[in-house]
Structures are given as C-alpha cells and as structure tokens.
From TrEMBL:
<protein>
    <submittedName>
        <fullName>XRE family transcriptional regulator</fullName>
    </submittedName>
</protein>
<dbReference type="GO" id="GO:0003677">
    <property type="term" value="F:DNA binding"/>
</dbReference>
<dbReference type="InterPro" id="IPR010982">
    <property type="entry name" value="Lambda_DNA-bd_dom_sf"/>
</dbReference>
<dbReference type="Pfam" id="PF13560">
    <property type="entry name" value="HTH_31"/>
</dbReference>
<dbReference type="InterPro" id="IPR001387">
    <property type="entry name" value="Cro/C1-type_HTH"/>
</dbReference>
<feature type="domain" description="HTH cro/C1-type">
    <location>
        <begin position="18"/>
        <end position="62"/>
    </location>
</feature>
Length: 270
C-alpha cells in the first residue's frame, strides 16, 4: 500500500516531464524508484538524501502528511509581495546601476565545461545573452545526449541575469523547473573586435553529487546573432574531450587543474 512517502514522491514528480528524467538526473535506478512510488520499498539514507536534495525539501518534509507537503510547496510557489521584495531589490538595483553595457556580448553561445556528474565528459550546452529595456538576461539549455547520439533524453533549462562589473562579466542563473539550484559564472571580457571565446570559472551544486558545492572552468564560444537554433541544440550534449564536436583548444581551456604552486582554481584568458 502506498504511504505518505510514496504519495509525496508522486506529487513532487508531477512537477517534472517524466519519471525517467528524474531518475537520470538523480542517478537512481528506475525499477528501484518505482518501488518507492508504489510503497514497496523505502530509500536508503543515502538515496533519501539525494531525493531531498533534488526536490529541494528536508527529510522531515518528505515524510510529512501529503496535505502538509502540498501546502508547503504552494506557499513556496507564491510570488513575493512588494514589501518582501523591497530589501533584496535594494542590492539588486545597486548592482544594476553599477553594471556597464553588455550589448557587444549579445547573441548565442556554445558553453563548455567538464560535467559535474559524468566524469571525463565535457558538457556542451546552448545559451543566449540578450537585453530587455536595457537589462541583460541569460538563458541556457543543456540537452542530455550521450556522444551526440539520438534524441536528447532530457533538457536542463536555466535562466538568469548578466552584469558587467569592474571589467568582469557575471552571470547568475537558476534551474527553472524547481528554482532550487543556482550557478554563478565569472568571465573575462574580450578585448578583440570579434568576441570569439570567453573563459572563466563557475560554481554550483549538481544534484547527482548530493549538491556538494563545486567549481569548474568554463568557456563560451560566441556564435553570433543569427543561428539555426534547432541545429545548434542538436550539436549539444555530453562528449569525450577528443570528440569532433568539441573544438580544438576547448579541452585545455576547461581542464580543471590547480598547479603545484597554486592554491585556487583560476581561469586563463583565451
């Protein structure tokens, strides 16, 4: 018989396109997950932690009465009132006023970095930097496709904002499905007439690693303002560093190595 846990899991899963995508992103066997949903088995402590990390709830909330969890999710989904936004927006507005224009950086990009959850593979995603009313925004799509074969099994979607502060480009993005994961990217600007490549460092907490904070080097390849979006998305996925889909020089730019005399992960200028 299903219990509170299985009912809560089913409710949380209803916010995603498919069970298969959830299992892939968490790294849990589909058959085992189906047993959790049916109330036939309970997650181990490790798997419970991974489930809670992924759905953005505590273990106590996961095990609470279903009506209580639904109410909690509904409250978290409600838009904030103006008084609640006033404090945080003070800091956002100050940064926006200090930001220089990013107009020359607008357009589409391929984004490259070593995957946090698939060791040895480079993630190649598709992103866009654009402006609305003088503010600059960012969208990033990560089609999950092994070695460029076949249709994507899932697409991770991120949105955020971009700033140009003290000669560095900053991008803050969040995962749009649950809004429980933030990535912050810091990039060198380009001093060439053509943008070409941008390099930097990004931080985040991927779900398959238990949301342990991590950092990686990242490279952006500027594609211009007019691209075939469908073709660009089909070129994305997880690839070996020597795959033809990964341009020459990119593996070196995103290789995460701290030199013997170093103490922190630092990006080179391209």
């Amino acid at each position: 018989m299903p219990d509170d846990l299985s009912e809560n899991l089913a409710f949380l899963c209803s916010h995603y396109p498919s069970i298969a995508e959830i299992c892939r992103r968490i790294g849990i066997n589909r058959q085992q997950f189906n047993k959790y949903l049916a109330g036939q088995s309970r997650p181990s402590r490790a798997n419970m932690r991974r489930l809670c990390d992924f759905f953005g709830v505590t273990e106590a909330e996961m095990l609470s009465e279903p009506s209580q969890l639904r109410s909690l999710v509904a409250v978290r989904s409600q838009p904030l009132a103006a008084p609640e936004l006033a404090g945080p927006m003070t800091h956002v507005e100050r940064l926006l006023r200090a930001s220089a224009s990013l107009r020359r950086y607008e357009g589409f990009y391929f984004r490259y970095f070593y995957s946090f959850s698939q060791p040895g593979r480079i993630m190649k995603s598709f992103a866009r930097l654009y402006h609305v009313d003088g503010r600059f925004y960012w969208k990033n799509l990560e089609p999950i496709r092994e070695d460029g074969r076949g249709p994507a099994t899932a697409i991770n979607k991120y949105e955020g904002a971009a700033l140009f502060l003290t000669n560095r480009i900053y991008i803050v993005e969040y995962e749009t499905m649950q809004a429980n994961c933030i990535t912050q990217v810091t990039l060198y600007p380009s001093y060439h007439s053509r943008i070409g490549r941008l390099t930097g460092v990004q931080t985040g907490g991927p779900t398959r690693r238990g949301r342990r904070p991590g950092a990686s080097l990242v490279a952006l390849e500027h594609l211009g303002h007019n691209v075939d979006v469908r073709k660009a998305l089909y070129a994305c996925g997880l690839f070996r560093p020597d795959a033809p889909e990964i341009p020459e020089g990119i593996p070196r730019l995103v290789r995460n190595v701290i030199p013997d005399e170093g103490h922190v992960l630092e990006a080179e200028e391209p």
